[in-house]
Amino acid sequence: LIYLCDASLKDTLSDSDSDMGSTEQLDHGSTDTLANGCKADSDAAKRLAKRLYHLEGFKRCDVARQLGKNNEFSKLVAEEYLSFFDFTGLTLDKALRTFLKAFPLMGETQERERVLIHFSRRYCQCNPEESTSEDGIHTLTCALMLLNTDLHGHVR
Question: Could you tell me the sign of the dihedral formed by the alpha carbons of 119, 123, 125, 131, in that order?
């Protein structure tokens, strides 16, 4: 993702650059600030999340990489992406299975961890009657992932 703070920089991008699947530009007048001082645009996050969800210019294997980045814009994108999922009334394992059918969870441990944190947050939003905290849901999610790996992850 490219974050542009200066309108003149934004104007220098060619049309071919702006059409690339992994490029999303931020509007100059946005109000959300990133940690590096650039402005995060929630509309750009919504557009990118929609493109990721519908795989418009992206492959399934690109999704986790985009959602697992550690910056404010990527957090907005992940929040918007997860809004496409409705886990209301689903058990945790069924919700996790539904979520992970959309893309393979690949990447570095920290990236996968961030994706699972976003999932846990969304699961709690969809199931507010659950007495388990977001941290508890995240712990159970990680346990399910470990058990699944133990059961099915052996290379023969």
Answer: negative
> Which residues are annotated as catalytic?
108
Task: Quote the tokens at residue 57.
Answer: 């210019």
| 61 domain-assigned | yes
Three-class SS state of 33: strand
3-state secondary structure of 50: helix
Report the C-alpha gap between 145 and 141 in whole angstroms: 6
* 113 domain-assigned: yes
Q: What CATH number is associated with residue 95?
A: 1.10.1000
Question: pTM for the whole thing?
Answer: 0.73
pLDDT digits (tens, 9 = 90+) for 75-101: 999 999 999 999 999 999 999 999 999
Range of the domain at 44: 7-152
Residue 2 lies in a domain: no
H/E segment holding residue 39? strand 39-40
